[in-house]
Amino acid sequence: MWVGSSGAATALPAAAASAFAAPMAASAPVTMDPGLVNVRLTVNDVVRDAQVDVRTSLLDYLRENLQLTGTKKGCDHGQCGACTVHVNGRRVNSCLSFVAMHDGDTVTTIEGLGTPDRMHPMQAAFVAHDGLQCGYCTAGQIMSATALLKEPCGRSDADIKEAMSGNICRCGAYSNIVAAIRQVRDAT
Ligand code: FES
Ligand code: FES
After folding, report:
1. How many Å lie between the centroid of ligand 1 and the Cα of residue 25?
2. Per-residue pLDDT at 57 exceeds 50
3. Its pTM surpasses 0.90
4. Which residues surround ligand 1 with Cβ inside 6 Å?
5. Residues 6+ apart with CB under 8 A from 50
C-alpha cells in the first residue's frame, strides 16, 4: 500500500510496485554511519587505516586513536604550536586540521623523528642546550625547528625567532631553544 500526501491509502499497480521494490532489493545494506569516513595515512612510516568521525582533528586522531601522545594539546585553537607535526614534510598545527583532509598523506610526529637512543640532531641539541623546562611545548618546538631547516628562513637569531613565533613556551626557555636551533642550522 502507498500512502500519498493526502494520507489516502492507494494500491500500486503490480508492475509499478515491483519497479519500486526492485532497486531497494538490489541495494547493498547501508552499514556505515554517514558521520564516519575511511582514511589511510602513513604515520611515522607505518600505513594506518581507520574509520573516523568526520569531525576528528588530526591531533585527536594521533593522540587518541594511535596513542602517539608525544604531540601535545595546548590551546586546541592554533595559537600555541604544541600540536605541531609534519604533513608531507611541512609543519602544521594538527589541532586545526581534520584527519579526513589528510587521506593519503604522510605524517611525522615527534616519535617518528628520533628515539632516546637515536635522537634527531635537533632533539640532541635541545637536550645539550637545556631548551626545555617542563617539556610540554618541546615536541612542537622541535617539530617546528626541524621543518624550519628546510624553509627559506634567514640565518640571524631574529629570523629564527620570527619563524618560531607560532610556538609558545610558558616556561620561557626561548633563548636556549634559539641556541639549539642555531647550532643545528650552522652545522647544515
Ligand atoms: S594545540 Fe594546536 S596550536 Fe595549540
Ligand atoms: S618548556 Fe614548559 S612550556 Fe616550554
Report:
1. 49
2. yes
3. no
4. 73-76, 78-83, 93, 95
5. 38, 39, 40, 41, 61, 65, 99
Give residue-wise pLDDT tens across range 99-116: 999 999 999 999 999 999
* CA 178 to centroid of ligand 2, rounded, Å: 14
Cell numbers placing 109: 610526529
What are the tens digits of pLDDT across the range 144-181? 999 999 999 988 999 999 999 999 999 999 999 999 99
Sheet holding 84-87, edge to edge: 46-53, 36-43, 106-108, 84-87, 90-93
Residues contacting residue 1 through CB under 8 Å, at least 6 positions apart? 9, 10, 11, 12
The preferred substitution site among 69, 80, 165 for testing ligand 1, maximizing ligand atoms within 8 Å of CB, is: 80
Report the nearest atom of ligand 2 relative to the CA of 169: 4
**Is the pLDDT confidence value at 56 over 80?**
yes
CA distance 103 to 55: 14
Say how many CA atoms lie within 13 Å of 14 toward its Cβ: 0
User: 23 C-alpha to center of ligand 2: Å?
Assistant: 60
How far is Cα of residue 49 from the mean position of the Cα atoms in its chain? 14
